Amino acid sequence: MPYADSIGAIRDLLDEGVILMAGISNADVSQIDEAREILGGRLVSVQNQFSPAFRSSQGELEHCAELGIAFLPWSPLGGIAGAKDLADRHGAFQEVADEVGASVYQVTLAWELALAPIVIPIPGASRPESIRDSAGATDLVLTADQVARLSA
Prior knowledge:
This protein is mainly alpha-helical. It has helices at residues 3-15, 29-38, 58-67, 79-84, 86-89, 91-100, 104-115, 128-135, 144-151; strands at 22-25, 43-49, 70-74. The longest helix is centred in the first third of the chain and has 13 residues, at 3-15.
């Protein structure tokens, strides 16, 4: 099915009042722009994979920031397999975690939040402790130097 037709179906649901807001997933910059045009500016979010190990959506994140559209990174910690090895594979995240006295997961989410005010990571969790730890990222303020080191 052509992308424009899929987005047109979402537009129809908006026009009919069946849905109040529209978001898309796994979209590149041109698809974001196409969706915005078809939806008449009613696109409110883009959900793409983004994590320390998967940064190819950085351009989409920046584009959403320019447009004021929420960017929702899925698998923000690298997925189940990637999260457990996050500190080993991305040493800067563990270094910053040690500096600020937080978990590497909390630092990762705080880094993503620091990239732009429109970022809303959606980490998964199977234990209450993980949920509480992730929520703590909203209170963790990283310095510009720390964000730069993590972004390198």
